[in-house]
From TrEMBL:
This is 4'-phosphopantetheinyl transferase sfp. It comes from Blautia hansenii DSM 20583. Keywords: Transferase. Its EC number is 2.7.8.-. InterPro entries: 4-PPantetheinyl_Trfase_dom, 4-PPantetheinyl_Trfase_dom_sf, P-Pant_transferase_sf. GO terms for biological process: lysine biosynthetic process via aminoadipic acid. One of its GO terms (molecular function) is magnesium ion binding. Belongs to the P-Pant transferase superfamily. Gsp/Sfp/HetI/AcpT family. PANTHER family: L-AMINOADIPATE-SEMIALDEHYDE DEHYDROGENASE-PHOSPHOPANTETHEINYL TRANSFERASE (PTHR12215:SF10), PHOSPHOPANTETHEINE TRANSFERASE (PTHR12215). The keyword Plastid does not apply. Residues 100-169 form the 4'-phosphopantetheinyl transferase domain. One of its GO terms (cellular component) is cytosol. It comes from the Bacteria.
Length: 206
């Protein structure tokens, strides 16, 4: 059976937020612009938005967004692709997929208080992190995995992170060696990663 495809678009928040002015957080703008780029790449954008300018396309995208009980976004058109967005530090990522998915990235920061281990990790996971040669990398790997699974299911942080189930499939990734990431789905997928610049989106409106 052919594997489902997931495309992950990666962008630097400051660069992307600079091409569109709105009273929204920079990371929100970046994530939505990456989604817009992915939709236009798939030619879904032209059909959904019929927009001549970036501003027009962005506003039409906002109107197409619907949200689940715990805030998971989706496109209102049932024939549209699935997507999920995450941001941390300087980066945002958008996963565009043929199947429901959840994505998360976490900037690896210095771990000053190990009490957070007890809130997020199972006892087995705590032991692995504590005995790891790179505790921060091990901890944020697990955190990204758990968050991506919760974003896949749409539960949000409404359950005990220490005991959540594992998805059918997930793939770890890193950004610039400073960010831990994970993509989760209910079926095995083939993933491609692409760093995107604002020009890549703007050329659709030139």
């Amino acid at each position: 059976m052919e594997q489902a495809q997931i495309k992950i678009y990666i962008g630097e928040i400051d660069k992307w937020a600079g091409i569109y002015q709105a009273e929204e957080r920079a990371e929100t703008i970046c994530g939505r612009l990456l989604l817009l780029y992915g939709l236009f790449r798939l030619k879904e954008g032209q059909e959904l938005f019929l927009a001549d300018t970036l501003t027009e396309a962005y506003q039409k995208l906002k109107k197409q967004l619907v949200y689940g009980t715990h805030g998971k976004p989706a496109l209102s058109d049932s024939f549209s692709p699935h997507f999920n967005i995450s941001h941390s530090g300087k980066y945002a990522v958008c996963a565009l997929s043929e199947v429901p998915c959840g994505i998360d990235i976490q900037e690896k920061k210095e771990l000053r208080n190990h009490r957070i281990f007890e809130k997020i990790l199972s006892e087995k996971e705590q032991d692995e992190v504590l005995f790891s040669t790179d505790q921060a990398a091990a901890f944020y790997k697990y955190w990204a995995r758990k968050e991506s699974f919760l974003k896949l299911t749409g539960q949000g942080i409404t359950v005990d992170l220490r005991g959540i189930s594992k998805p059918v499939w997930q793939e770890d990734f890193t950004l610039k060696e400073v960010y831990a990431g994970c993509i989760s789905a209910d079926t095995e997928c083939q993933v491609t990663y692409e760093h995107i610049l604002p020009f890549d989106l703007l050329k659709f409106f030139s």
